[in-house]
Design goal:
The protein is an all-alpha fold. The protein contains 3 helices and no strands.
């Protein structure tokens, strides 16, 4: 992992792409219930907030280990959200 800045940028880009995909699906399928895609958007925003708060955490003993754990959690949550978008 290169830096805190790169991890923040990755989180921002991936969560933004997931939100975009949910809104594109909602626009492409106007007859379907928009609540499903809105729930994914809300979950992506909550995940973004949670991950950024963990990245910005100051009182960490081992930064390298902490960022590896945050990165692993990021990948897990992002993959779960992508699966939800694909299931729409």
């Amino acid at each position: 992992m290169a830096s805190k800045r790169v991890l923040k940028r990755d989180v921002n880009n991936v969560m933004g792409d997931i939100i975009d995909a949910a809104y594109i699906h909602q626009a492409a399928n106007p007859k379907e219930d928009p609540a499903k895609s809105e729930a994914i958007v809300d979950e992506a925003i909550a995940t973004f907030d949670d991950l950024i708060a963990k990245i910005n955490k100051k009182d960490v003993e081992d930064n390298k280990k902490h960022f590896k754990e945050v990165n692993k959690e990021f990948e897990t949550k992002a993959n779960a959200l992508v699966e939800k978008v694909n299931a729409l």
